[in-house]
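Re: Re: token formats

Sure, here are both.
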Amino acid sequence: MADAGFEGGASAGPTRIYVGNVPWRCSPEELESFLREKGNLSSVSGVSIPVDNETGRPRGFAFLTVDPSEVDALLNMTGAELGGRPLTLRVANPRQPSGDRRYGDREGRPSRPRRDFDGPRRDYSSPRREYDNYSSRRGGDDM
């Protein structure tokens, strides 16, 4: 099989393509028909345009799948204008496992341990002990 224009060569299955600078008013059907007509491609499918979770607006890029034999023809369409915007096309990077994002930042680095703001950790096992600690710091038991 011939090299599909990216590291790793062509794969047996369809290739996922990233399309950047997509107009916000463009629908997946419009993008798919544009790429099929402009590049004489027959295997463009699975076009998805991600939307912002908060606003519901398209994020300005898309993903699609294409047969490995048509990857070069599709990548040569970089710079073609759709809605007055030049498109950027490249082979999509494989998705990284998300893991557990509750701990650490987006790059997977561990977050700093949480610290109490008012000094060392207190023992809350006994309310009386906590009261005694408080009253001794105030200067005695005057209640």
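Second one below.
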Amino acid sequence: MVAKYNPISIYSLLTLFSSCSIKHASSFSMMSMSSGPPSDLSGKVVAQRFVYRLSPTKSSVTCPNNYSIEERQYFTVGEDRSLEPFGDKCFIIRDNPEKYYKNNEVEPPPETLKKNGQPRVYTRIGPSLYKMDNVAEVDEDDEENGEYALGSSVWDSSHAMVLYCLANPEFIKGRGLEVGSGIGIGGLLSCIAAGLAQGETEYLPSKSYQSIEDIANTPVVDESGDSDDGSSSGGLPGFEKSYAPVPNNLAKVLLTDSHDTLLSKCFSNVQKSSFPPPKVEIKSLDWNSRIPNEMKCQYDFIIGCDCAYYFPLVAPLARTVAYTLQISPYDKVDNEQRVGGQFVHIGPEHRESIQDLRRKLSRGYRMNTRTQSLVLERFDLVPLFLDSMNDVEDQLKEEVMGEKAGFVEYQNIETSYFTSLVGYHHEDYDGFNGEYFFPADTGRENNYGGDGTELDYGYGTAPYK
């Protein structure tokens, strides 16, 4: 989990201030800690920055275009050098630096030493493709005895899910459902990430999807045909600007949670993300309640970010997924199973309840399942100084187009391990026979193996497929 406002991280920033040398800022008074903080910090804006990416060598699933996600938190500096949060978190999806700089022969910065004698280390980031400002999270004062602790802020599992969707954008299509949405960032950014990846012409035809360039240059049009360059914007308040780049073949994604406070924050984030209004819906969903008939067997994809947080959540979550996911019938023409709806869950590798969820889906609902390892790298970039928030857009451009050509210094790198669980229905499930087909509902769950096959006569003994 990424902490909201962490005094320890602020203390570390202040420690860095005192240990760095003072140098001049750039043309618009932007500088990073690699150059040292300005002598007069009062009134400055400091950006705490983290860049996330999937390890290209350690993950079973790797991002083919080496995308990354940057998380920022801005702070203002008082006269006594105290730091106060300025606004809420910002998320930036960045392009593949290797592709962007393929004709750029700029060498990495020369090796230099910090005051503590340690060498400076750099990574390279690509240009900003999408930026979401002021993400709405649940304030600590609003939480009641930890009631909203699950889903009240942005967890690292959400970063991993977004990067997973950048690597596998093809499964974000049709009707989608996010279970345990919380404040909605995982679901929103995952769909936007898939739209960005599908807009790439290197491995998918761009004419079938919205690219970031197309969206930036296309006026918003509502159902009546009025564009946003006229008198009517055709959107709800908060949607006046160009829409976020989601896949054209995304019909609608339903963001769900059981807490009204979280759903309220989710609604705010839908507005702030500029997600196309016709393609998103928010609804309360309690996994322990009966599945509404209108939701049964309806969704082409279901995603969840660390939803199997502890064991009591496993059974109701598995049941909700099994009854809402689209069928995957056997195709008699092609003589093979046609995979329909897919469920993707991502959570920390150490979370034992993820394996419990897999067993429940396989044995209790006879679903085909597989798991893969994801290795998430987090680069803690050196803090960035700005004269004001008006310099942010210039900084984003200068960082990748200026003399440093995307090379940024980082203080530390942390590695986290995650598990992606993917499941889809057995070919014999027709969407109507669940109460008779699912062993969890017939009381015969122990008769099935991990591959969903009955254990009689020696079959189904394999733990998993």
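The radius of gyration is 24 Å. Residues 1-11, 16-31, 200-240, 457-462 have pLDDT under 50 and may be disordered.
- S.
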